[in-house]
Design goal:
Helices cover about 75% and strands about 0% of the residues. It is built from six helices and no strands. Helix 1 runs antiparallel to helix 2 and helix 4 packs antiparallel against helix 5. This is DUF47 family protein.
Amino acid sequence: MRFRLTPRETSFYDMFAASADNIVTGSKLLMELLGADPSARAEIAERMRAAEHAGDDATHAIFHQLNSSFITPFDREDIYTLAGSLDDIMDFMEEAVDLVVLYQIDQLPKGVEQQIEVLHRAAELTAEAMPNLRTMDNLTEYWIEVNRLENQADQIHRKLLAHLFNGKYDAIEVLKLKQIVDVLEEAADAFEHVANTVETIAVKES
């Protein structure tokens, strides 16, 4: 760890932790969507929208703090990238839920539950990792595991696409379902971007 002679703004750590905790809330709403009756999905989408707005507020708070802080705990560019990637995760999860409601999907294809389980696990790991930015301890296993989960998400996504294009769905339904599974895959990619940014920060601070 580099020795510093000047004090650093430490509120970023709490704000990153709050943003990651909000993502766990979003992943739980995704899981709730899976078992919900179609008539209950609109209400879940409303709660997800509220969580996404909370995520936006957390991101704006980080950017405001960044713009008003002379000394930051690590590179400004990395703070900006980390905050933006966390925000992307919530955006993608909210979009997936919204599409399910807007497209009036009766039944999601088998395999989507695996996508969501991966996202939920990645959310838990991310929330556990954010407080460790204070000390940069115990982060290696985090980014290794999130990268493994992203690879798993890739495999699930490919299998889902193969299933959608097997001829059992009509063309319009394929387009709707493909957009949903693609957005969930983008959420998995965003988790990897967060993990990669954390790794970059840890390497710079070591």
